[in-house]
Every structure is written in structure tokens, then in C-alpha cells.
Amino acid sequence: MFSRITGIGSFLPGEPVSNDDLARRGIETSDQWISSRTGIRFRHLAENGETSSDLALEASHRALAGAGLAASDLDLIIVATSTPDFIFPSTACLLQSKLGNHGATAFDVQAVCSGFVYALTIADKFIRSGSHRRALVVGSEVFSRILDWSDRATCVLFGDGAGAVVVEASEQPGILATALHADGAHHGILAVPGSVCGGQVTGDPFLRMDGQAVFKFAVRVLAEVAEECCRAAGISPADIDWLIPHQANIRILEATAKRMKLSMDKVIVTVDRHGNTSAASVPLALDEAVRNRRIQAGQKVLLEGVGGGFTWGAVLLEL
Ligand code: ACO
């Protein structure tokens, strides 16, 4: 028994917000600084009150329509998010309620920007075990809520959005290999080091990052885990048709492709228009590349995540 993606959908809130728009809102920055260092030109930002489960709902409706399934057909719902609606219940349970599904297994995965790759791997393992047959796997984030808008080194990098896939049991292989890793020793280089205690926020409720340390770490592990995942499937990185890395920064994507000796023509890039949407970035990029027919049925696609924790991982699949 294998698992296979049968539907893909995504959702971006509101209109694109340009780098110049951020400068006009009072952030001391420029299009030249942001685009030359990160490749980011636009991002989408959720309205006040618009939550991760709202964005996830739109993306999920589109993925379910693509698979030709109703929400009641699902027996597993996994949401990858670091910006949940509440401390609890999980965003997966809130999404389940909005979809009108009753009884499916539902839970969140917290692996920051690797969250979607973690969640997809977990769904693959549930399905291959025979316990579940139809999963909805979502990455959904409203990172704009945890940004310090007075810290220009971080607030310009992120955006909001959601991407979703339906994964079904299949006799034909879809997901070919997976690899997941974490090393908590690096928790300090990218974190929101705050918590709620006694009705108050303790610590720091905003995203903090050592940008240069993150850059070096991300490039190394993205190249390593790509090779590991290809090896597990018995192919070489040169056999990949498309690489979809977590969309953090164009320079991380270019450095990863160079280490893997892959042409940038094989790398799906959306960071220029979406910014870094954390757990949503990979399914957003996958959806866009399938909808505009760059990715074709039968091609080998390698999805990769890296994020706070630190966590990292890869999923090799055929659509
Ligand atoms: N606009 C204008 N100037 C800025 C901005 C801004 N938005 N942000 C920082 N600067 C200034 C700084 O104040 C500093 O000025 P100074 O020299 O007068 O002190 C100067 O630019 C250089 O700042 P650095 O932080 O050293 O800039 P750096 O060249 O390292 O680039 C960046 C920062 C783009 C974040 C880089 O470190 C990077 O790409 N890191 C990767 C991190 C990343 O992409 N994280 C995403 C989240 S992690 C993940 O998803 C896995």
C-alpha cells in the first residue's frame, strides 16, 4: 500500500503587499535592500481576525474539490502551523469543525517551516500502515501576528497563507521516500521565546532570528537531506524533475541548488511573491506549479523543509 496526492489547493489572503508598501507604512527599508538580499518583492497579510483555520479552510476546499472528495470522506486531518488560532483546541480540530467533518483523527504538527514536510510524512506513514485511507494535510500560517514590526531585519521576510493536499491510499506509488530530522541544540537561532502564564505573556512574544546562522544551517541541511531522500528511493539528485524547497530566501534556494548541482530551472520559486510563509510555503509553491502546468503527472518532485527547532526534512513523490 502506498499513499498518493490526489488533490492540491492553496489560499493567499488579501492583495499583494509590496516592499515599497512596507516602506510607506513606516518601516525603515527599501525595495532594493529586501529584493537584493532575499528575492522577496511581495507578501500577503491576513486581515485582523483572519486566522490560520480560516486560511486553511479555503485551501482545503480547493484541495478536496481537486480530489473529488467531500470533507466527510476524510479520516485524517493534520495541520502544520506555528501560528495556531488558540493554545488549544488544535487548529486541525477547528478546521475539522469548519469543514463539517465528524470523527476523523485530527491534530496539529509544530515543526515551524518544516511543518508541512513533517505532516505529509506522518500522513504517509498512517496510510501505509493501513489504519487510515484519506488524509487532508495542510500548512497554514499567519506569521504577521508574531512579527515585531519595529524590527526591520525580520518583519520584511514573512507572509501569510495556506496550502493543502489530499493524500489517499493507492496501489500506485505516489510518495516514494521521506526523511525527517531535528536538532534542538540550535533552538536559539530562530525562535518566538515567549509563553502565556497566569494570564500574561512571559518572555518575548515576537520572532527572533540570527539571520546569518540560519542561512548557513539551512543551506547545509537542505542539500544533505535531499541526497538522503534520493538515496532512500534509489535515485540520484540529477533524476529529480522539480525541487520545491521551503521558500525562505532566494539566496538559500540558489545555494542549495548549487550544492546539489541542479539548475535553477528545476527549482520552483514563489518567495518573490509570497515571502516566507513558513509551513504554508511548500504546498503553496506545489499548488502554483501544478496549476500553471510546470509540474506534470509522473514527474519526480522533491519537497524540502527547514525551520525553527531546528527541524528539517524531505519528501520525494510522483504526482
Ligand atoms: N532594510 C534595510 N536595511 C536593513 C534591513 C531592512 N529590512 N534589515 C536589516 N538592515 C540593515 C541592518 O541594520 C544592517 O545595517 P548596519 O550594517 O548599518 O548595522 C545591515 O542591513 C546588514 O544587516 P544584516 O542582518 O547583517 O544583514 P544580512 O546581510 O545578514 O542579511 C538576512 C539579513 C537577509 C536576514 C540574511 O541574514 C538571510 O538571508 N538570512 C537567512 C535567514 C532567513 O531567510 N530566515 C527566514 C526564516 S528561517 C527559515 O525559514 C528556515
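^ acetyl coenzyme *A complex. Residues 49 and 145 are 10 Å apart (CA to CA). The chain is about 35% helix and 25% strand.
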